[in-house]
């Protein structure tokens, strides 16, 4: 009798593990498909973070990633602008952003530059079909993965960024 209960327990534990793993694998498999480019929030804050709290988080994040080279990757060995914003939003705000700038600009709410707030994403058209994205830090500054300097902070009112500015989007 005890052996049968033990076998039943082992069987149900095994079944739960297999079902749990297959669901996880399904989610991970689907996470790499184009359909996963959709924006969806992860668990939300009890209250929206204040501009000061966001700025503090962004400064910490910048210090963690400062100088990481730009090379189209998504790690400290090298990162591109959209991977940097995606990782930043996940770490700082518990939000999932799509992987590419093309999809990131499709979500959130577009706001006027005059209404920009700390944590908003700033988008730029750098070439005919080239786009760039960064995170507004306040004080007319934004953090981003630059092709020439790696992860850095730039000013929105510099001649280059003023010329290529496209739009601001808010996600929370």
UniProtKB/TrEMBL annotation:
Keywords: Hydrolase, Protease, Signal, Thiol protease. InterPro entries: Murein_DD/LD_carboxypeptidase, NLP_P60_dom, Papain-like_cys_pep_sf. One of its GO terms (biological process) is proteolysis. GO terms for molecular function: cysteine-type peptidase activity. This is NlpC/P60 domain-containing protein. It holds the Pfam family NLPC_P60. It comes from Veronia nyctiphanis. Residues 1-24 form the signal peptide. Residues 47-172 form the NlpC/P60 domain. The lineage of its organism: Bacteria, Pseudomonadati, Pseudomonadota, Gammaproteobacteria, Vibrionales. Gene3D superfamilies: endopeptidase domain like (from Nostoc punctiforme). Belongs to the peptidase C40 family. PANTHER family: ENDOPEPTIDASE NLPC-RELATED, MUREIN DD-ENDOPEPTIDASE MEPS/MUREIN LD-CARBOXYPEPTIDASE.
């Amino acid at each position: 009798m005890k052996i049968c209960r033990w076998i039943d327990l082992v069987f149900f534990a095994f079944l739960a593990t297999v079902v749990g793993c297959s669901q996880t694998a399904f989610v991970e498999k689907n996470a790499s498909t184009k359909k996963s480019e959709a924006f969806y929030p992860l668990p939300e804050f009890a209250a929206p973070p204040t501009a000061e709290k966001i700025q503090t988080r962004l400064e910490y994040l910048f210090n963690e990633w400062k100088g990481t080279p730009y090379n189209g990757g998504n790690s400290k060995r090298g990162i591109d602008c959209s991977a940097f914003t995606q990782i930043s939003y996940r770490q700082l705000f518990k939000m999932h952003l799509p992987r590419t700038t093309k999809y990131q600009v499709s979500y959130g709410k577009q706001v006027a530059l005059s209404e920009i707030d700390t944590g908003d994403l700033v988008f730029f058209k750098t070439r005919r079909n080239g786009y760039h994205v960064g995170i507004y830090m306040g004080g007319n500054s934004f953090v981003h993965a630059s092709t020439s300097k790696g992860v850095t902070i730039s000013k929105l009112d510099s001649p280059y960024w003023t010329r290529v500015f496209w739009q601001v989007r808010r996600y929370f």
